[in-house]
Amino acid sequence: MLSLLARLNWPFLVLWAGVALFGVCVDRYRRSLKFGKLTGCQTSHKQALVKDPFIGLDFIHERVIRGLSGRRLLDCIEKFKQYGSTYSVDRLTYQVVQTCDPKNLKQVLATGFDDFQLPSSRVSVMGELLGSGIFTLDGDLWSHARSILRPSLMKHKMDGLPSIIEHHVQQFLTHLPRQGEDVDLQPLFFELTMDIATEFLMGYSSNMLDPSRKREKEQQFFDDYMLCSEEAIKKMSYGPLRFFRLNLAATKAKKRMIKYMDEYIEECFERQDGTFQRTDEQNAFQEIASAVTDRQSLRDQLLHFLLASRDTTASLLSNLFFVLAKNPETYARLRSEVLSKVAYENPTFSDLRDIEYLRWCVNESLRLHPVIPSNGREAIRDTTLPRGGGADGESPLFLRKGAVVLYNVFSMHRDPAIFGDRVQEFVPERWSGLRPGWGFLPFSGGPRVCVGQQFALVETYYVVARIVQTFERLESKDPREWMELPGLAMTCRNGNKVGLYEA
Ligand code: HEM
């Protein structure tokens, strides 16, 4: 090996590497010039400082260290203040554009949808964790996966949702102490949404909250899932170096998770007599089972669907109750508005839609702590963004094929130009008459908009209504501020410790 290295003509190799690099730069410049003439777009003058121009080790280091501090998203806001609402991070190996400009988000997610695909880092990391499903697919395979899931989430099916939820909410309430003793709501919300999601989507609930059940298996599944979810986010932040990251605990957790899912699927089949002929009234499990041919695809699709439906709604509930506990006046107003509409009765779907202040509180939580705070897409051809190019950043921006656009919903949701004053605070009243359009995207937008938005909202409204009916007062038992816990859905790092007082 050493003799081979010694025989290489190093000056010649370095010269050729230099020529190749020069060629790449000239080609990029020529392409951007040509494309600029055709479309009027420009390159970005807003460039973040890059210390390592090859693979970006400085950014990987920054993301990992900031991630540990629980302040990564707040730091992003500072970066946008420093460089503008769209800026580039250019390296020789790849181009990244960071944006929190609603016009650019609309372009990536809707108007220019066909020019983008999911970033390769997401496809490989999530694929490794959950297999192939709606969150890793593009093109025809994605359309097909989406068309399978949609029927079970049609709007008309939401009318029956409150009656499915009620039983699980009653079990959830039995776990809450009633005289102000400390309780962490976060893990309980995860169990509740797991029980509801499995019943609605698969026709058979995991019943994690049932006090008569031994829950070790479910608890293990839950812990494994959280571990894999955190690992996935960490891996993605390693960018091109993600392949070097090894986590044996996560590998073991994934194996157990798959085993749990396989057993669960077996039970679902047994309970439903293995009959999966198409009918008009199918749940998601039946829809998927009748559309795929093998067990592994069924498991993969279900894992994606569970991730989509369970973690997100649990995180929303947990984030919302975190801020409600810190804002007793808001809690009191919410309670009074719910009671004036439905008193202590079980609310129906239409009751829930009519409680305006409940809607405002949920919107405000999704604004302040969006459950999916940032996301990305990769350009599949040379294309443009409407803003970010030129010296003032107001011209269309050239994006070369392969560039990754990272769009930051968290920063956009704290833009005073869209949401007015006190953007760092929880102020549901701001939603009176507010129409932020593409400035508010908790459920994304365009063809890949969340298919479960109605389901998530009805579930959240119902759970909130039942809790405020039951408890007159809620107080925070944690003096700390909300801090991010990055995962595939974002929750509070310190959980949600509160005291509740029965009415
Ligand atoms: C508060 C709760 C929820 C939030 C904030 C939320 C948010 C989102 C967001 C932002 C996306 C886009 C992801 C992307 O483009 O990369 C998404 C996609 C998706 N959501 Fe939700 N979601 C929630 C609940 C649900 C529920 C309850 C379900 C199912 C019952 C669901 C099913 C899905 C599916 C299947 C997708 C993939 C859509 C596609 O790629 O075509 N979500 N969700």
UniProtKB/TrEMBL annotation:
It comes from the Eukaryota. Belongs to the cytochrome P450 family. Keywords: Heme, Iron, Membrane, Metal-binding, Monooxygenase, Oxidoreductase, Transmembrane, Transmembrane helix. Its cofactor is heme. GO terms for cellular component: membrane. It is a single-pass membrane protein. Pfam families: p450. The keyword Isomerase does not apply. PANTHER family: P450, PUTATIVE (EUROFUNG)-RELATED. GO terms for molecular function: heme binding; iron ion binding; monooxygenase activity; oxidoreductase activity, acting on paired donors, with incorporation or reduction of molecular oxygen. It is found in: Membrane. Heme binds at residue 450. InterPro entries: Cyt_P450 (IPR001128), Cyt_P450_CS (IPR017972), Cyt_P450_E_CYP52_fungi (IPR047146), Cyt_P450_E_grp-I (IPR002401), Cyt_P450_sf (IPR036396). This is Cytochrome P450.
